[in-house]
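SAMPLE LOG
Freezer: B-3
Tube label: C17
Construct: single chain, 152 aa
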Amino acid sequence: KHSRIWKIMKIEEFRVRIKVYAPAPEVWNELVTWKNQGKWMALTRVEASHVGPADSSIGTTIEAFTGIGKFGILDRMKVTEWNPPKFCKVDHYGRFIKGIGTFELTEENGVTVFDWFEEIKAPKALLLLLKPFILIAVYASLRKFARGFSSS
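STRUCTURE (predicted):
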């Protein structure tokens, strides 16, 4: 069932999995309320053409700025697949970040596994340099997201 955990990733692939102690629909609703992602994603501000889960769908556009002050990078995305409360896929189409991103939720006995995946097109040397830091930041951010459900 979780054999992909042991799959060796290519340098352009990024994957983080965490458990969230809440039902998948609850996790989904918070996850796709795009404007809230800045509350738990490290150093990130998010804007979207739709701002709540009821309004999001294929075609929703999202802009995420990650950085400090004016120094950072803008990630532009468009939702290309939408299957609530289980799966969302985006295409990254910004100037510097291109590729795909997905998140998938699976639930068992009220515990949701959140699988975050990105495949980024960039120079391999840059990816080799940044990958460990990106994975650490995303892991810490997703843990913060998951902790938000512990008091619910």
